[in-house]
Design a protein that fits this description.
The protein is of the alpha/beta class. The protein has a single domain, classed as Alpha-Beta Barrel (TIM Barrel), CATH 3.20.20. It has helices at 3-14, 46-55, 73-83, 97-104, 122-142, 159-171, 193-200, 232-242, 259-278; strands at 32-34, 60-63, 86-91, 109-113, 147-150, 177-182, 204-208, 248-251. Helix 1 (3-14) packs across helix 8 (232-242) and helix 2 (46-55) packs parallel to helix 3 (73-83). The protein is globular, with a radius of gyration of 18 Å. The two termini are 20 Å apart.
């Protein structure tokens, strides 16, 4: 990021004014809590989780689950409704969940890893990946839901490939398909973040933040609190400069920690980044 963009980023941060210390999509109440279900060391149930999210001053959740959580899908939705929390996204989709979405009259995004494949050419890889996602895209279209192609490493995690498959699925008539991009699966792309964001922004339906260091996974620092890395501050400034005003997620994703503590640390780290920009 060059000096001119850095200056513009700081100006944009400062221009938020006293009425709101951070851009609207970065404000605590608008952030999306992600990876807070199977990764919670406290093993909270639906009602406890809803209480936790509300106590943190948040009101949006992206729901990740494992097999043992299937019987409590309805209880989760009811707990969120009771607490005034929105389920904005649901991991991978599930046949038991779609009727509940209709029952509760919600339309969460469905997030799914874009798969890599061994087709011999780039064009072939794009077509094959689109074919692998087509059944879920059709299910989403049937239920009037948006499908989010989720970067999770490998060929399927490359921004250009996410965009190419998104375009191919839209060409096939699946118009409600976008990209969910995760900092924690993109440590190796820190240097190209400005270019990557420009490429994916027209398709971006959620951006999940993380502390960022080069060689993070190799150093055992793949999941890192926001503000504890070396690069996320400049990457977030790039997001502000770009004008992206869509959903922003923060995550737990640590089996060994209490989700409430981890999410709070990420919120405070993010708020500190904006505070520093004003000083």
């Amino acid at each position: 990021m060059n000096f001119r963009l850095l200056a513009l980023a700081s100006a944009l941060f400062l221009s938020q004014g006293t009425a709101g210390e951070v851009p609207e999509n970065f404000r605590r109440e608008n952030l999306i809590a992600w990876c807070i279900v199977p990764f919670d060391a406290a093993k909270r149930g639906p009602a406890e989780r809803a209480t936790m999210v509300k106590a943190l001053g948040m009101r949006r959740v992206a729901y990740d689950w494992r097999k043992e959580h299937i019987p409590t899908f309805e209880a989760e939705l009811q707990a969120y409704r009771n607490a005034g929390i929105e389920m904005t996204a649901f991991w991978s989709g599930h046949e038991d969940a779609y009727p509940l979405f209709r029952q509760f009259e919600i339309r969460p995004q469905i997030w799914k890893t874009l798969p890599s494949n061994e087709a011999p050419t780039q064009e072939g890889k794009v077509i094959k990946a689109a074919e692998m996602m087509a059944a879920l895209a059709a299910k989403c279209m049937e239920n009037r839901l948006t499908l989010g192609l989720y970067n999770h490493g490998g060929w399927g995690g490359e921004p250009a490939n996410l965009v190419a498959v998104c375009r191919e699925l839209r060409r096939r008539g699946f118009v409600d398909v976008g990209i969910v991009y995760n900092f924690h699966h993109a440590h190796e792309r820190i240097d190209s973040w400005a270019e990557d964001l420009e490429l994916i922004k027209p398709y971006l339906i959620c951006l999940n933040l993380n502390g960022m260091v080069k060689d993070g996974p190799e150093e055992g620092r793949k999941i890192l609190t926001i503000g504890k890395g070396d690069h996320e501050q400049e990457m977030i400034k790039t997001v502000v400069v770009s004008g992206y005003d869509g959903p922003i997620g923060i995550l737990d994703h640590r089996n060994e920690t209490d989700t409430e503590e981890t999410v709070r640390e990420n919120i405070e780290g993010l708020e500190a980044i904006f505070k520093q920009a004003r000083e």
